[in-house]
Every structure is written in structure tokens, then in C-alpha cells.
Amino acid sequence: MNPLLWLFDAQLHIGDQTILWREVVGNVFGLLSALGGMRRKVWAWPIGIVGNALLFTVFLGAVFDTPNPVNLLGQAARQVMFIVVSIYGWYRWKHAGDTGGVAVEPRWAGWKNRVLIVVGLVGGTAVLTPVFRLLGSYEPVWADAWIFTGSLLATYGMAKGWVEFWLIWVAVDLVGTPLLFSAGYYASAFMYVFYGAFTLAGFVVWARTRRQKPKVETLWPDPTLQR
């Protein structure tokens, strides 16, 4: 059998629950990507893209006729967003390594960007909630919109090297875990529980790295600071 076809159809049965193996594998790739991101390794981006492609098919259960016929449009859409932003992050980190620097130098986002992050998270959730509801996303739709918006901001923050991006993931996990459990995506829900602890550890690692190099100029300073 073609390995790709097997992966697409393979299922894991636990009691009366059916879990797709590609959901498990996709989350494993996501975990590897997070580990690589904490260590500031360029390979974190392509590894993450593979996981995103697998999970995209998982969260459109009704479209791909999976054993769990539930559509989480925010979860599915964020996989596409991850791929697009990951290409940007991959290029950015790799370009830094090619020029003799490290992949990324952790730095604080600053209060202006922190305020923009909060406004963007709340505003993006408010705007996307009626859109996702119109398209038939799983209730509570605001949680799906929150997850998508937070994931976009966190991935962008990672590419920029902001230490605070780890805390955005914590906010995503706090909402995402109960949503995934209620929708029947148990593998992803359990992974979110683990991610919650992992993101806190990642924040500590990046914050400590930043404190150890307080005078190092960032590789990509904010253009607004150059005026």
C-alpha cells in the first residue's frame, strides 16, 4: 500500500473513540517544530510545515469524511496560515545564518507591540467569530476564532524573535484545550495540554537568553526604531 494513502486512512481505536493517525503524526511534527524553535534551529520551520499539512486535513472532518465529522475552521485555516508564515520565518532565520549570525536573537517586543498584540488578539477574535459562524464552524465559534488569531500573532512573533510569543501560545492553549476535547479531537487536545507547559518553559529559556545578552543588537530591528 502507498505509505501516504495508509497514513491518510489509518486509525487508532481506544475504547469507543477513533483517532486518526495523521492527527497524532501531525502533532508530533508540531512538537518537534516547537522544540526546534526553542533551540532557535532553522529546521523547526520545514518540520512544522509538514505537520500543518497533515492537521489541515484532520480539522476539516466533514469535508474529508473522517470518523469525526466536525469542522473547526479556525484550526484548519491556521494550518494554512502557519505554512505561509513559516515560509517567511524559514527564510528569515536561514538568511541570518547564511550571513554569519544566529537564526534569531530573542528580544522583548516592547510595550507598544504588546498593546498591539492584545488589541489584535481581541479584535481579530471579534471580527472572525461571525465569519466562522456563517461558514459553519464548531461552537463555541469565538474559541475557534481566538485560536486562529492567537496562532497568527504567535507565529509572527516567533519569526520576529519576540520573547512574548511564547505567552501568546499559552493564551491559545488555555482556550484550545477544552475546545478540542469537546469537539472530539483528543490527540490534539492532549498535545495542547503538553504544549501549555512547554510554552512556559520556552518563555523562560528565551527570557534568560535575552537577559544574558542585554546589549546585543537584534538582527532585524524594528524599522520604526530607525527613524
Shape: globular
- Average pLDDT rating: 79
Query: So how many helices?
Result: 8
Can you write the helix and strand succession as a string?
HEEHHHHHHH
Q: Structural class, judged by helices and strands?
A: mainly alpha
The biggest beta sheet is recorded as:
2 strands, antiparallel
Strand order of the largest sheet: 1-2
How many runs of DSSP E, i.e. beta strands? 2
Given as residue ranges, the uncertain stretches (5+ residues, pLDDT < 50) are 215-227
Measure the end-to-end span: 60 Å
- The gyration radius over C-alpha positions equals 18 Å
Can you give the helix content as a percent range? 55-70%
Strand content: under 5%
List the helices and strands and how they pair.
Layout: H1 3-9, E1 11-14, E2 17-20, H2 21-38, H3 44-58, H4 73-98, H5 111-134, H6 141-160, H7 165-183, H8 186-212
Antiparallel strand pairs: 1-2
Helix pairs in contact: 2-3, 2-8, 3-4, 4-6, 5-6, 6-7, 7-8
